[in-house]
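Margin note from the TA: students keep mixing up input and output lines. Inputs are the sequences; the output is the structure of the whole complex. Example:
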Amino acid sequence: MKIATYNVNGVNGRLDVLLRWLAEASPDIVCLQELKAPDNKFPIQAIEQAGYGAVWHGQKSWNGVAILSKGGEPLLTRKGLPGDFEASQSRYIEAAVAGMVIGCLYLPNGNPYPGPKFEYKLEWFNRLTDYAAELLELEVPVVLAGDFNVMPTELDVYKPERWTDDALFRIEVREAYWRLVSQGWTDALRELHPGERIYTFWDYFRNAFGRDAGLRIDHFLLSPGVATWLVKAEVDRKVRGWEHTSDHAPAWIELSDRPIRRRKHNG
DNA sequence: ATGACCTCCCGTGGAGGA
C-alpha cells in the first residue's frame, strides 16, 4: 500500500506532470494540495482515465485539496475542519480508503509574520490539533498527509538562520507542530530517516533546486497502529527536476499489510 | 533590503505563494 502527498501548485496547469508521475509512481492513494481550481474545474475525467477515483474540495484561484484512490472512489467523510466558517478556505478533506481514514490538509502559509495571516495559521493549526485528538480517540488507522507549511527542526531547512522570522519556521509554529505530533503521531519521513537531510520543497528562485536549498514541509503523520506498518518513506526528488513542475516534490510512504515495526514506548 | 519565479484571474498587472 503506497500513499503519496503532492502539492501540485495548480492541478490544471500541472496536469501533464501529475499524470506522468501517477503513471510512473503508481501510488494507491494520493493527497493533493493547492488545486487552485473551483470544484467544476477539477480534471476528474483525466484522473479517471489514469485509473483513479477522487473526491475533492476546490476553490477558485487558491488552495484546494483532493484525495485520489486507485481503482475506486474514496468514501468522503469530511470537507473542512470543525469550526471552519461558511465559505472558508478549502484546506482539509478526508476520506475512508482501504480501511484507513486519510486526512489531506493544506495548512496556511502564515506569512508575513507578524500579522493576521500568521494568527490565522496558528488558529487553523490549533483546530487541526483539536480534531486530530478526536481522530486518535477513535482508535482506527489514520494518516494525516499534506503540506503543513512548517519545518519541524533545523535539520529540515537548508539555512535555518535565514528562516527564524518566517511563518514556516517561527517557534510558535514549530511548537504547534510538536504539540500535534506528541499526541501520539509518527512523522513517517523522519522516523525512517533520523538525522538525514530530506526536503520536499525548493523555491523557484535562485536555482534553489540546483543548489539543494530546500525545505521539508510536506509530512505524513501516522496514528500508532499505522506506524507499525511503516516500511518505507521517500521523496520523489526527480519530479522537481521536470519541465513545468511544481515547487514541491511528491512524497510517499509504503505500508505493509501486517505489523513490521514495534510500537514506540513512551518515556 | 530587494527581488528573483510561477500560478491564477476577465487579467493585460496584481495577489499569493514559501
